[in-house]
Amino acid sequence: MIIRTSATTKRWIDIVLLSIAGAAGATFLLHSFPAHPELSHLSKWAFPPGAILLTILLSTSNKGRLSAWSGFRHFPSHPPTWLAALLGFALLSTYITLIPPEAAPVSCKGIDFPLLREMASQGKFGILLALTAGAFTTLIGRKASIYWATRTTHRAQSEPQVLNTGNPPRDTTDRTTTQALPPNAIAFDYNDLLPWIENDQPISHPRLDAFGHARIAKRITERLFSPSAKRPTLALIGTLGSGKTSVFNLVTHELHALRLLDTKISVARLSLWPFDTVEAAIRAILEKINKTLSQHINTTPMSGLSDEYINAIEAAGGSWGRLLKGTRDPSAILEDYNQAASAINLTIVVWIEDLERFAGTSTLNDETETDRLKPIRSLLHLLSEFQSLQIVLASSSLNTRFDIEKIARYVEAIPSIPPSKTANILNRFRQKCQSSAQNIIDPARPEARAHLNLPDSESERDLRFSLFSTDNLMFALATLCNNPRRLKFTLRSCHDIWERLRGEIDFDDVLAISAIRTAEPKIFSLINDHIDELRSQRQRDSNNKSLFAQKLEKILEERELHKRSSIITILNFTFPNWSSNNNFIDSSDKPQGLSRRDHRDYWNRYLSLAPLSADEQDQPILRAIKAWDNHTSDDLISILTHTNSRHTVEEFISCLISPNQLTRLLSEVIRLESKLPATTWTASQPESMVSVWRAMHKQAPPGDELTATIRQLVIQIAPSNLPLTHALIHFFAQHDSGVPSLLSDTAISEINQQFHSILSTKFPPTNAQALTQAINGGNEHTLFLCSWGLDRVRSGQLQGTPFDGWHTFSNTILTATETEPEILIPQILPFITTHSREMVREANTPRWRGVIRFNQEAAESLFDIKRLYKIITQHQSSIRADHESRPALEIVLEAAHLHIGPK
Length: 903
Description:
By secondary structure, the chain is mostly helical. It has 4 domains: 2-156, no CATH class; 186-413, 3-Layer(aba) Sandwich (Rossmann fold), CATH 3.40.50; 431-612, no CATH class; 615-819. Helix 24 (484-500) runs antiparallel to helix 25 (507-519) and helix 34 (659-673) runs antiparallel to helix 35. Keywords: Membrane, Transmembrane, Transmembrane helix.
């Protein structure tokens, strides 16, 4: 109060002295220089309208910028500069009218002195003074009514008591514009969480506070009323996105609720981010203070203080230099702001943000940069010394070159969101997104989904215990999403992608990679650059780190240990093959995961968000699988046998269909394929059967059940479709050194014996036509592979006869050849020819050449050789062998002609 009275008294003294100086100067000018004669005529009508206009302005200009500019807002405590001119004019007029004419106070012939005296004698000056007095009375009356209303609201409470009682005045804010959030509302109610995700605006009301920012704002507000002569500097520290802007909004809300904002306290908020130089930053701070003051008083006389301050701190030569340049001390310049604010009983809170973006967060060892910032540190220190100016510094770290910890008396740190709370929010969001997707089928295995499941117990202790277990994915996500902005952007990114690709991509992978994308954009960019390496299925060498791993290691060196392990955990979950030491999960457990590219490129799907065509969509396939599993539709069989989506189906059925049901699927696929010729295959075997076979290798059905199914299928299809039977035996009842067998050796032997028995019993010579039909479009090796078996062909064990009862079957082959030589002769050629490679020289250049020879021994052992020669020579004109079989046919024809002789 003493400081305010002193400042007000000083202001009135300045105004009076300025008015006297102005009147004296005007007297000198009027005495020295004649004015225009029209001045006397102008004065006759200018005074009354001017007085009326002045009265109107006085009665209406007590609000907003106009009242501050005119000086009426705080007229008693900080009279405007123009009052000095008015007082000077009054002094000059009094002087002119009261001095006798013969004294000739002025020599200005343009002023009619008799007229002035006549106006004074008639009371016209009294009318002007009465109008002015009425205007001042109106102004003072309106100010008094506002003051009395404020006193009524806050009676019996001083300003500090209002803050400390815990019972703030009634809040008149319109409650229809915001909806109250109970504690942890966004963690337990998706309807509250979704609007929060979609809104970028910082909160501005305590009812919307979900992370405890209101408590921090309350403490800061209380400290804005320090009773000490020097206002304590405050520091608000929080990472980018932690809610510093929300705290600012909540502080202004508290001040507004207490009816103190812009009455007792004004906040000058400024970000240093846009400024490149120290001079620009200093000028911006001072001009912001000046602009804030201009909302209360006319600051036109103070508009040059920022330039004066810059000149003062740049003045060389110490005090002598400043004296020669005519500049004041920097502290004296800033005192003008303090005096003006003190006179009107106003505290200006200078809220400065983004210090770290202006100065950087490097250590203080950079002496050059530290010296560069000395003027700003000095300015902040000087401002903090004044009673009516208070500094609040908002930064992401104390470790800046501004020495915040030395300037600030109080430090408010915005804490990270507790992992348990973040986990609850993530869990609620995940559950709602997945449950709201009606008719959406998730192909991932339950064990893959378990990594993000929280315990069923609602105990906080159980939740914390589960979160802090080793390699907990939910804890890893909570660690990265540890402030409101990161959490919000992660959820928003995941929500937007899920809305576009609902059911067409793995949700958990999208959530995990969204956290990386938001919290660690550098790592996300690295992932995108090396995405093919991360998705590779090749075996990793534990001794040699990949290029991605080397670059990642350099980035992680700058991260805290807990954040480093969290990033590794998320990578292990999202890209299981990126490291040789990763036993976290198998990529096949998530068929729609971002690590998959064999059947769909889900990473590209995630980045592009392009609309999917019908052939690219997964849900129709997944619905067909579920419908088949429930015995309600056979569309799955058609998809497997007639579309190009077999590989995708293969990945999905291995996760959605139980091993027992895979044998049923195999039976239905084989039965449908048995009705189709082998010419419809895109390869040497039906792709639909191969897809089921691959799925069985991912989750093998019971061996006895599969053996029984294979035996039954062989019995059913062998008499009518030998290529399909061979393909079935090839994949399920043959040995392969690179792939483990699904059946036991005993079962394999029994199935092959059964098949050979069918060949000798179901195809007698009397039913040779059935053999021709059973070939069913197979290639020229069909009978050869069916007879010898792939195992013996690979091992070269082709001595003797293929199986017991062979001669009966060979007789059937020859009989069928006599009626259908075009089909059967190419089938006989592999039995009686050999293929080898020999080194030959052509133009003195060695090269390998395929050599085909007639196997006389095999022909005599396997067939009736005379009958065979006869059939071949008789039907040679009707044989239309392809380019691969033609060389072997010519060799056999040559041997037949040599034996029989030319026809």
